[in-house]
Design a protein that fits this description.
The protein is an alpha/beta fold and 588 residues long. The chain is 32% helix and 21% strand. It is built from 20 helices and 25 strands. The strands form four sheets. The chain has an eight-stranded parallel β-sheet. A six-stranded mixed β-sheet has the order 4-3-8-23-24-25, covered by helices on one side. Helix 3 packs across helix 8 and helix 11 crosses helix 12. The structure holds zinc ion. The site of zinc ion has 4 residues, from loops.
Length: 588
């Protein structure tokens, strides 16, 4: 337990400077009475008696930190901070606990995180039977025509697979049996595929004879029957049919569901020590909704939102109205655009330079055409937006590096100033690694993906490509590139401690380490989750370290993740999450 006390210590007459000890001269009452006294305004919040990793090299590790309003005003020894404690200062006795800058989730899906808490959670299912059971229970409580949605299934997590699977995935027959009158849409944990029952396929007009669409696959049996599995863009029709059904529900019901979604997302973030969140994609409508929440004070986590799901025409017309730079203690920033060039490796959607090891007739999929990304990049330059492109395969990464380079050269711009990002950057040809630092392109990666994907990477890429091209953090950092960290929640849990641990250990759940030479040091992992993510959002002046003058966004952890034995890192508990000087979450 952390003790909370309201101190009644007297205010000393000196201003505490960073790490400078406050040493007031004893003065007689007569002497002080004749001098104008400079009394520092007391702090509103002080955390003391702990190990505070400021992540600011000039300050280092200290015992205490003081906050006034939403800003850090001092970091230093308990003595340094003492003068800032006034009658109404809330003092938290850390009793040796660890404090660090709040985690910044570098790439996640905020409203979708909330939504996954509202629908069937399929992430812990260990078999297809369990999933069918969950759907049948939901169908029993649903009205005919109501959609049943689930998220997070992954065939690699199942302890057994039913007969008749195609590419390891069952057909939808049993979903048709248990929910004949309800469209069922079960999204894969990667987000790159879904299983739909026949009612859902019919609502999207998909039949056995429907052609595949560019960038997508309707998986079929050898006899030509659609199995219900839809890959990449083939999901769009069913998603649109669901959106149509949702839009028919009364507006206020939708508003309630959306607000609940935002609340659930915030709760998940705060309980995991996340104080800022880079949202990898929201439409202008979603941004309007988030803006409303911010104005009502209902956004407890700071969002850095990338514009997504808009046509070129819509971007051209509306981007200027949506540029919202970060201001004093605000919670919503919009100055970037998200694009997506390829799919995921697991579903053979990542765009590779050479064909897949286990599927030699394909080298992956192109989702947003290169020309479209190029035109988007032009708009971004015109209106002062950053471009963040999802690229997983080595071909996808090369194409986007080429595209960014063309844009920088043709506009005579310095890439380092623009800070354009590669989202995921998972598989890189060795020749492309140094180009990140050379061009000033940021590698926005997810530590935890490396250990989830690690066990099956060789099945897709073979051993050589797995070792040489996959999650090459060390090669990137040695070449001078900056790496961001995150989880791509809800693809993975938002837990930054798990991703931090994956980043320093590369320990997979099979007990082996994925090319351990590519691991980050703890300092590098800490920076990837704090200052580097702040930099990737143009916010390094206000976030990412516990430097006086920056926002008081910090997290109290049960133990020091920089020094505990590596295997103990995952046991770390978040005890307190502070955003803008306010305690937004307290652990048990
Ligand atoms: Zn994502």
């Amino acid at each position: 337990m952390i003790k909370h006390t309201f101190s009644t210590l007297p205010i000393f007459i000196c201003i505490a400077l960073v790490a400078a000890s406050c040493d007031p001269q004893p003065a007689t009452p007569e002497a002080t009475a004749s001098l104008p006294r400079e009394i520092p305004e007391p702090a509103t919040l002080v955390l003391r008696g702990g190990k505070v990793a400021t992540a600011d090299e000039a300050i280092g590790e200290v015992e205490a930190v003081a906050v006034r309003g939403h800003e850090i005003v001092a970091a230093g020894s308990n003595r340094d901070i003492a003068s800032l404690i006034g009658p109404v200062t809330q003092v938290i006795e850390l009793e040796g606990r660890f404090v660090m800058p709040g985690f910044i989730e570098g790439h996640g899906h905020y409203l979708y995180l909330g939504k996954t808490q509202q629908i069937l959670d399929l992430g812990s299912a260990q078999s297809w039977d369990e999933i069918v059971h969950q759907v049948s229970e939901a169908a029993a409580g649903a009205k005919p025509g109501d959609w049943i949605q689930g998220f997070g299934w992954h065939q690699e997590k199942w302890i057994r697979v039913p007969e008749g699977v195609i590419d390891g995935v069952p057909r939808n027959d049993r979903l048709n049996q248990v929910a004949p009158d309800n469209p069922v849409l079960l999204t894969h944990a990667s987000g790159h595929a879904m299983m739909a029952n026949d009612a859902a396929l019919a609502s999207a007009g998909i039949g056995d004879l429907t052609d595949d669409m560019p960038g997508g696959t309707i998986v079929r049996t050898s006899g030509g029957k659609a199995t219900g599995l839809l890959r990449e863009t083939a999901q769009n029709g069913v998603k649109a049919a669901l959106a149509q059904w949702e839009s028919q529900r009364r507006a206020e019901l939708q508003e309630i569901a959306m607000r609940e979604r935002a609340e659930l997302a915030a709760r998940e973030a705060l309980r995991h020590g996340v104080t800022s969140f880079h949202d990898a994609g929201a439409s202008f409508d979603d941004i309007d909704f988030l803006k409303k929440l911010e104005s009502e004070g209902q956004l407890p986590v700071r969002l850095y939102v990338m514009v997504r799901y808009e046509s070129i025409e819509s971007l051209a017309a509306r981007l200027p109205d949506y540029r919202m730079l970060s201001e004093e203690n605000d919670f919503l920033t919009v100055r970037s655009i998200k694009k997506q060039v390829d799919g995921a490796l697991g579903s053979h959607g990542a765009w590779l330079l050479e064909p897949y090891f286990d599927l030699s007739d394909t080298a992956g999929l192109v989702l947003d055409p290169i020309e479209e990304i190029e035109r988007t990049a032009e708009l971004a330059l015109r209106y002062g937006f950053q471009v963040n492109t999802h690229a997983i395969g080595d071909r996808a990464n090369r194409e986007i590096l080429d595209l960014y380079q063309r844009a920088f050269v043709s506009h005579d711009m310095d890439g380092a100033e623009l800070r354009w990002r590669m989202e995921h950057a998972q598989h890189l040809d060795p020749a492309d690694v140094p180009r990140f630092a050379e061009l000033g392109v940021l590698a926005s990666m997810q530590g935890v993906h490396a250990i989830s994907d690690g066990p099956w990477l060789p099945s897709r890429l073979g051993d050589k490509r797995t070792t040489e091209t996959s999650y090459v953090w060390r090669n990137l950092m040695d070449s001078g590139a900056r790496i961001n960290n995150g989880t791509d929640v809800p693809v993975e849990s938002i837990d930054p401690i798990a991703s931090f641990h994956a980043s320093v250990s590369r320990m997979m759940n099979n007990g082996k380490r994925l090319t351990p030479g590519q691991a980050m040091s703890r300092q590098e992992a800490l920076e990837s989750y704090t200052i580097n993510n702040a930099y990737a959002a143009f916010e390094e002046e206000i976030k990412g370290t516990l430097t006086p003058g920056k926002l008081a966004d910090m997290v109290v952890l049960s133990q020091n993740i920089m020094t505990v034995p590596e295997e103990k890192i995952p046991e770390t508990q978040v005890e307190m999450t502070i955003v803008g000087g306010e305690i937004k979450y307290r652990g048990e």
